[in-house]
Amino acid sequence: MNWGAIIAAAAANMAIGALWYSPWLFGPLWLRLAGKTKAELTGQGKAMAMSAVAALVMAYVLGHFVVYLDVADAIGAASLAFWIWLGFLLTTGSESVVYEGRPKQLYVLNQAYHLVGLLAMAWVLVFWA
Questions:
Q1: Nearest 5 degrees, angle CA 77-CA 73-CA 11?
Q2: Total of domains in the chain
Q3: Which residues have C-beta within 8 Å of that of residue 41, sequence separation ≥ 6?
Q4: What is the pTM of this model?
Q5: Rounded-to-10 torsion of CA 28, 96, 92, 44
Q6: 81 pLDDT exceeds 90?
Q7: Is residue 44's pLDDT more than 70?
Q8: CB 33 within 8 A of CB 95
Q9: The domain containing residue 60 runs over which residues?
Q10: 45 falls in which pLDDT band (50, 70, 90)?
Q11: Whole-angstrom Cα distance, residue 48 to residue 77?
Q12: Residue 62 CB partners (closer than 8 Å, separation 6+)
């Protein structure tokens, strides 16, 4: 396991999240769908720290999949990311709609981010070496 690649993959995921939920992309839509205001988002240091830890854990585990499955190219990395997203994130994320009554559009927006983030992390982990 290459710790530089793991940290870079986690950073890539965080950067995509920062852009994805920014005012320039989907931030305003996310605010509306989540029922939040900009004022409610002040002091998000703990949330950002938790997201960073989660991204590191995800990159570490994804890195193991890359090694165990001997993924060595862009298509393999994309395939791995897709199947992990479909099997674990898309499925468990649906509970926010089914049990919590969250808007389906919010689910789609968040899950699209997770797919893009996983793709980026897989590519970083495969090509860092």
A1: 50
A2: 1
A3: 31
A4: 0.93
A5: 50
A6: yes
A7: yes
A8: no
A9: 3-127
A10: confident
A11: 26
A12: 9, 80, 81, 84, 118, 121, 122, 125
Nearest to 21 by CA among 91, 124, 112: 112
> What backbone torsions phi and psi does residue 100 show, to the nearest 5 degrees?
-100, -10
Smallest CA-to-CA distance from 66 within 111, 118, 11 is with: 118
Nearest to 110 by CA among 53, 27, 7, 48: 27
Please say whether the beta carbons of 59 and 6 come within 8 A.
yes
Let me know how many helices (H) and strands (E) the chain has, helices first: 7, 0
Query: What pLDDT sits at residue 116?
Result: 98
CA distance 94 to 80: 20
Q: Whole-angstrom Cα distance, residue 34 to residue 92?
A: 18
Q: Is the dihedral of CA 40, 45, 50, 53 positive or negative?
A: positive
pLDDT band (50, 70, 90) for residue 6: very high
- What average pLDDT does range 87-97 have in this prediction? 94
Is pLDDT of 18 > 90?
yes
- Amino acid in the structure at residue 10: A
Percent of the chain with pLDDT over 90: 89
